[in-house]
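Record type: monomer structure entry
Structure origin: computed from sequence
Chain ID: A
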Amino acid sequence: MAARRRRRRLKKRTRRQLQGWGAVVAVVAAVWVTRHWSVVWPVLMAATAAALLGGAGWALLRAHRRAVGQDRAWRAREEARARELSMAEVDALSWQQFETYVAELCRRDGCTRVVVSGKSGDLGADVVGYLADGRKLVIQCKKYAPHRSVPSHDMQKFVGTARPEHGADVALFVTTGHAFTRDARGLALRQDIVALHRDLLGSWVKGAHLETLIPLNGTGGGTRRRRPA
């Protein structure tokens, strides 16, 4: 207990000493500022003005960044909503009409000799045509509900026929479903298959050119050209 009281007294004494020295320093500083006010006040005013300008600039920068972020988020929401509005008509198509519609998108983007199989047993070649640069395009169309994902076995079937059976330079798997499963997407990337899920299809429907969508698949997507015969 005695040791504790001594520590308390020492702390109080130290605190009083610090307060005393602080007061002395404050008085000396006040006297010095008073005697040299003609020199101090321009510096003080300049520092105050710089602080105010800096604070205002920082506030404006934060407001600008916040406004830009909000604008980008709004544009993304509007673009997604526009895609869904454009996809509403696509969702109303039958699977046969969907294949025909995809063929029309290909023709719109400059593809030639576009043919729609329109029947089962086509070995994955629902639409066949040629890009403007001469590459052969083979498309598998899957008219799925918007909430569905394309499973791996669908992608496996297309991988097994797109190039071995149909000689595709660009193999395109397009679906109205919202995504590809992880296994299906990984297989598409490894086998150079362009996988267009609902959002990318929506962009295509809205006017994006097929050639700009192909690289979005990731590692390739029909970048190899046909060798001349």
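Annotation 1: Residues 218-229 have pLDDT under 50 and may be disordered.
Annotation 2: The first helix runs from residue 2 to 35.
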